[in-house]
Each structure stands twice: as structure tokens, then as C-alpha cells.
Amino acid sequence: xxxxxxxxxxxxxxxxxxxxxxxxxxxxxxxxxxxxxxxxxxxxxxxxxxxxxxxxxxxxxxxxxxxxxxxxxxxxxxxxxxxxxxxxxxxxxxxxxxxxxxxxxxxxxxxxxxxxxxxxxxxxxxxxxxxxxxxxxxxxxxxxxxxxxxxxxxxx
Length: 156
Ligand code: NI
Description:
Layout: H1 26-42, E1 47-49, E2 59-62, E3 73-84, E4 87-91, E5 99-105, E6 108-114, E7 120-126, H2 127-139, E8 150-155
Antiparallel strand pairs: 1-2, 2-3, 3-6, 4-5, 5-8, 6-7
């Protein structure tokens, strides 16, 4: 378990397309553990994608940390296969420190992925969770929220 360095928006790795995970190797297990450690270390992050720690694999973790019993969600090879509606939320990104902006995302989605053990799961998401899944999934294709922001970015 280790906290990894989070790349910021000038890093070209953030613009690459990540590769699928073909097997849950010890290396992938360590990556997931480290990503969770890294996410919690930030104190305010709710999601982190593997390219943000310099690993171009299709993995992201989310923990909205809305209550004490909050459990992290691990998505490996995620596929958002259904979306509908729309919502606009203020987004930020651990790789884009000090900047926020409004982004339009689906109001509702369905996603399938593998969990940390490599078991397939399928879930529905709305609200903040849906926004967060879309934001993290974009990282796997080299897309940052700043590419989709409506109007001006807010700077801290
Ligand atoms: Ni992000």
C-alpha cells in the first residue's frame, strides 16, 4: 500500500488512451490498493483514474465518502452502455488543481465493469455518482473535464 504521485494537466500521459486489463495480476491488485490510498490521502477527492497516477490501464476508483460507512467502488474495464437525461454539475479534478467548472453529463447511466477481484458487476447510477463515473471514465480516454466545461473555468 502506497500513496502515488498524481499527475497534473500538463502531463502528456493524461491525454493517452488507456489499455484494458486482461488479467487481475498482483500488479493490478497493488495498483488498485495504491489508488485508494492515494485518493484518501487527498482528503477531498471522490474519484481517481489509473492514468492520473501514470498507469495507462482502464481502472478507476470512486468513493463519494457521503457517510462513515461509505465503501469504495472499483471499476476495471468499465463500459457505460446506457445513458439518459442530463444534469449539470460543478466538477473539479485532482489532476487540475485549483480549477472548477460546470459540465453536462447524463442524469442516469448503466455501467458494467469488473471489481477489484475481477468479478463482473453491473450497476445503475444517478446524480453525483453518475457524474463521477463519466468523469473518471473520460480519463481512460485521455479526456479531462476542462475539455467539456460550459463557459468559463473558475480558478481558486
Ligand atoms: Ni479527474
